[in-house]
Design brief:
Layout lengths: L18 H16 L10 H6 L7 E6 L6 H4 L7 E6 L6 H13 L4 E7 L3 H12 L7 H17 L5 H19 L1 H8 L4 E7 L6 E7 L11 H7 L2
Parallel strand pairs: 1-2, 1-3, 3-4
Antiparallel strand pairs: 4-5
Helix pairs in contact: 5-6
Length: 232
């Protein structure tokens, strides 16, 4: 993994340069995926042979669920996304280091936390909360990490699995900003933004549940197209 940000392999006009444009590109790709009209950009032999350096326009921290392939649901290709995946998009030191690499070394203007409905990690933590029975092996670690989310959600009167999942995505965006000084500095300096998205397994649509650092700089507002997408 080598960062060579000063050796672009993609024309500047083809790579979203601002957080708002990066988000718009992702949402437009998801719309194509949902409507069955994908373009499969940057997936041909020419792209493969031309990508000698990384210049992704988004870091995607997603759940490891096999139904949540970021390049597919956002209709992107090689070199577009810097993807980090863990069960339940849990954040540890390796994840923080990977996200910081994407933002500081690769200069990605957007960080996305990508969750989904019917998340088994959330479901396992809820079952452990309800029954008091922990899963075996290292699966216990997942439940232990998610248990505080379940407790605080129940305290707030939130008990439905998908609602807890959306809350977990939102909390993960705030956790990244709280624990990573380089990421927080990039957002404060308007070089990057952090967005939380949830994905619906049945129809393929993503929804925005959290955003930090978007639309705060004159001349870098979300724009009509993105605002419309966010309102859905």
């Amino acid at each position: 993994m080598r960062a060579t940000p000063h050796q672009p392999t993609v024309p500047a006009s083809a790579r979203p340069a601002t957080p708002a444009r990066a988000l718009r590109t992702l949402l437009e790709g998801n719309r194509r995926f949902v409507t069955g009209q994908p373009r499969h950009p940057n997936q041909d032999a020419a792209r493969r042979q031309g990508v000698n350096a990384q210049r992704p326009f988004a870091v995607v921290l997603g759940c490891s669920d096999s139904r949540l392939a970021a390049e597919i649901i956002f209709d992107r290709g090689l070199g577009d996304l810097f993807v980090v995946r863990t069960v339940g998009h849990l954040v540890g030191t390796d994840v923080l280091a990977s996200v910081e690499f994407g933002v500081t070394a690769l200069r990605a203007p957007l960080v996305v936390v990508l969750g989904h409905d019917n998340c088994e990690a959330i479901g396992s933590a809820i079952r452990a909360y309800d029954t008091g029975v922990m899963p075996p092996g290292f699966l216990r670690h997942i439940v232990e990490r998610l248990s505080p989310e379940i407790v605080t959600a129940h305290t707030a009167g939130i008990t439905e699995s998908d609602a807890i999942g959306r809350r977990h995505v939102h909390n993960t965006t705030e956790l990244l900003l709280d624990r990573s000084r380089p990421l927080a500095d990039a957002v404060a300096g308007h070089r990057s933004a952090v967005v939380g998205l949830t994905y619906q397994l049945d129809n393929g649509r993503v929804h925005v549940v959290a955003r930090h650092g978007l639309g705060t700089v004159p001349g870098q507002e979300l724009g009509t197209a993105v605002t419309t997408m966010l309102a859905r």
